[in-house]
Amino acid sequence: MPDNKLPIPQYLIAADIQDSNLHYAWDDWKTLPVLEYLDPELAGMLKRVSQRAEFAFMCATAEWVVYRFEKLLDTSIPWAYLQAAWAMIVNVRYCGYGTGTWWQEYSGRDWTGPVRGVIAEALERLEIAFQQLYLEETDPDSRAGLVATLATHIMPNAEPYKRWSQAVMQRLIALYPRDEDDELGDVVPRQAMDPALNFDVAQTEDLINRFLAGLDYHSNMFLSSPEGMLQVDDAGESFIDR
After folding, report:
1. In sequence order, what are the beta bridge partners of 49?
2. What residues pair up with 56 in beta bridges, in sequence order?
3. What is the C-alpha separation between 95 and 74, in angstroms, rounded?
4. 69 contacts 115 by C-beta, under 8 angstroms
5. Most buried of 47, 71, 156, 224, CB within 10 angstroms?
6. Digits of tens for pLDDT over the chain (242 positions)?
7. From residue 22, how far is each of 68, 71, 159 by CA, in Å?
């Protein structure tokens, strides 16, 4: 049966960020001003890439957050959500649509505190960005910047994440530049987010097909069923086909 836990990239393992000591401030009421800071350099870079590239950056950044706390978790549910989020970059029908379940509907009151609360915040910011784009047609660049701010805040050493984000954004700018006639842009496979891989956009179709073939809505509550994927939202076909 397909595994709903994403394979861990080598760059995350090499970053050595799974420190059990928590040295950062946290507030479940979301009143920490530091978490609303947008790095101006990153913000400028995000505006230069496609919206799908922005989402790929957000998903990969959320992986840094989840992996940082993996030894303190007793569940792989966040990885299941991220698997579904990567699928939704391909087509929004895959996640949270029809019979699917979105993170905010699932998490409830159980995801609070300086570990689970941080993970919930990262995934909620990712989810809100999806909603803003597909329902309100709002660009997700500021939300992507805020996920990066969160990741930087909670790392035991932020330098590995900063080096990774700089390298990845340079790649995204080169391979997935913003096109005013098609701001959503082409699908970005997860492998594009590994700076050490010699990634070629020509590999995209094969990589995406292999990823989609490994999805199983039976074992991942965040994926829509085939029947759910065929339903049409009240917002109309434009919501589906963007």
Report:
1. 177
2. none
3. 23
4. yes
5. 224
6. 345 579 999 999 999 999 999 999 999 998 899 999 999 999 999 999 999 999 999 999 999 999 999 999 999 999 999 999 999 999 888 886 544 567 878 887 789 999 999 999 999 999 888 888 877 778 888 999 999 999 999 999 999 999 999 999 999 999 999 999 999 999 999 999 999 999 999 999 999 999 999 999 999 989 988 887 877 454 434 344 44
7. 11, 13, 17
| Two tokens, residue 224 | 């829509």
212: its two tokens: 């989609």
* pTM score, whole prediction: 0.92
Pick the closest to residue 140 from 214, 33, 47 (CA basis): 47
Interhelix angle 141-154/51-68, nearest 10 degrees: 20
- Token pair 């005013």 is found at 180
Q: State CA 96 to chain mean position distance.
A: 14
Calpha distance 238→162 (Å, rounded): 36
